[in-house]
Amino acid sequence: MEHLALTRRSFHMLACGAGSLCALPPAWAAPGAVVWRLATGYPAENFHTVNLVAMAREVEQATQGQLRVEVHPKNTLFAMNAIRAAVQDGKAEAGEAIMSSLVAEVPLAGADSVPFITHGYADAMRLWRIQRPLIEREFTQRGLRVLYAVAWPPQGLYANRPLAGMGDVRGLRMRAYNATTARIATLMGAVPVDVPAAELDKALADGRIDCMLTSAVTGVESRVWQSMRFFYDIDAWFPKNLVFANGKAWDALAAPSRDALQTACAAAERRGWADSAAAAARSMDELRRNGVKTEPVSYLFNRDLRRLGEHFSLDWVRQVGVGANDIFIPYFDGR
Ligand code: PCA
């Protein structure tokens, strides 16, 4: 009979969907189990996604299968920029988004992409601790629940030619992945070209961009050396990915499942920040191995970049209004 031919693997494919990453090896779902779908736009091998899958595994183990979180990577469930709305509307129970993509709805989410105010992971973490209660308040009002956030490695500048100063960036096609990065490109005198992470490899192969600001990790994942062999390690900012859930889906969980999810998310946050630093170091080596020259910027270029950072900060404060003080005052006071 046909159903007897259903192997554990094919059952797993049916249960989890072909594009998803289930946390555990195939197993029959526990009776009454709740399945959450978690959407992300980043690839399965990215350290953020690997961390999500580890979180899902912990939840599944702790709840003995009562709550299963399926991780759908690389836009397979929803396109990156649609994930927040999809989770808010209950089309997916949970999702991950880079915070600077949420600024239209939650302006305070943009604080981590203000360039040159964080000088390492410790600063980025301190900024997150200040941002978190404010973001939580905003998310709660929208029926969303904040689970955790993890920083990307510092954003550096890649180019297909050596850049001696800001003048050399003028007119270049600079990759951007949301309104925030497009604004930075414009301030640098470049022409923003919208390319989501999932399409970066192809855009580089097609020669559609001359320069970009992103991490060493994304440089490696997109094989940046196909067209860009210069990397300026300017530590411009530490964008964070935010993982969140639909508020109703959260409320509907049985208390033990909710506790298990909360515990696993706290662990994922701790682990993710450490993984980010480790992935950054590995990726820098990988860039060099593939012929990317990592160089410091000249004194004048650095000065101009920092001025641009100040300009962007002022812009950001103007745009966000007094709420920006709730972040910047404690952040700069805590230095
Ligand atoms: N990589 C992602 C976001 C930030 C990063 O380092 C990207 O470039 O799309």
UniProtKB/TrEMBL annotation:
GO terms classed as biological process: transmembrane transport
Keyword annotations of the record: Signal
Gene3D superfamilies (alphabetical): Bacterial extracellular solute-binding protein, family 7 (3.40.190.170)
Signal sequence residues: 1-29
Xref: CDD domains: PBP2_TRAP_BpDctp6_7
Name used for this protein in its record: C4-dicarboxylate ABC transporter substrate-binding protein
Species assigned in the record: Variovorax paradoxus
